[in-house]
Amino acid sequence: MSVLSSEMQQQVQSELVREGLITAEVLEQVKHESEQSNEPLFSLLMRQGHVNNESFTKALASVSNVPYVNLTADDSRV
């Protein structure tokens, strides 16, 4: 069961492709694998190394209209 609605999942997928983080072809291939294995799509994308956690979080923040802030970044300017 996914925490994200189907519409939100679709928007995140589109954002990942739009940002050039994955191709539409890779997305379709991994979607098929996800359906076959019953593993959540985004988990599979990350496990296979197509998208990292930060990229996924940025895409999710973008489609949710929430500012993205990396609280773990070492920013010596502060």
Q: How would you describe the overall organization of this protein?
A:
The protein has helices at 6-18, 24-37, 41-47, 53-64. With 78 residues, it is mostly helical. α1 (6-18) packs across α4 (53-64). The radius of gyration is 14 Å and the shape is globular. The chain starts with 5 loop residues before the first helix and ends in a 14-residue tail after the last helix.
Number of strands: 0
From the alpha-carbon coordinates, what is the Rg to the nearest angstrom?
14 Å
The SSE string, one letter per element, is: HHHH
Separate helix tally:
4
How would you classify the quaternary structure? Answer: single chain
- What is the average per-residue confidence, as pLDDT, rounded to a whole number? 90
Task: Indicate the proportion of strand residues.
Answer: under 5%
Which structural class do you get from the secondary structure elements? mainly alpha
Q: Give unreliable regions as ranges.
A: none
Q: Between the first and last Cα atoms, what is the distance in angstroms?
A: 40 Å
